Amino acid sequence: MKKKEETLELFPENNYKSPVYNVIAVPIEKVCANDYNPNVVAPPEMKLLELSIWEDGFTMPCVCYYDHENDKYIIVDGFHRYTVLKRSKRIYEREKGLLPVVVIDKDLSNRMGSTIRHNRARGTHNVDLMSHIVSELDKAGMSDQWIMKNIGMDRDELLRLKQISGLAELFADKDFTIPQSRPVYNIDPDNAEEAQVKTEKNEE
Prior knowledge:
Elements: H1 4-10, E1 24-27, E2 31-32, E3 39-40, H2 43-56, E4 62-67, E5 72-77, H3 79-87, H4 89-94, E6 98-103, H5 108-119, E7 124-125, H6 127-139, H7 144-151, H8 155-170, H9 192-203
Parallel strand pairs: 2-5, 4-6
Antiparallel strand pairs: 1-6, 3-7, 4-5
Helix pairs in contact: 2-3, 6-8
């Protein structure tokens, strides 16, 4: 028999229920990617993911936000599982074009935070996209403390990403090129004054 304390931990008084207990099957046509995911998976890992889903099925649902206005499910976590279902004919046919999804209801800033938290321990983060996210969160009025807490980064990393995004904005829509090398000036041996300057510099 479970102790009273253990029962309280399993069934908290506020009756919170994790999204994973409400998995739904969504037609892939109603699911779309977000435009801020900085997680990158190399082609060999994508092939392995396709094989894993083929052999074991979907063992983890994708996390989405439901856009009521457009009747779309926007990916928060699970972009690569979603991609596999779209691109793999054999998996698409077996799953009847349905993607397992759990829904979270958060505003855009908090959805960005959720995406980063889901991804931090997986794959490789695209620095440009990470700096873009930091820039967007900063513009949305999120404090450095909020960003560090919700994305899981220290102050030095946040500073570096802010600097990167700042430089990107500084050069946005600007045409600039690397200047060509200046031509090398050869001293005229017949010019006595130049020859004298060269001799004095060599002696220094």
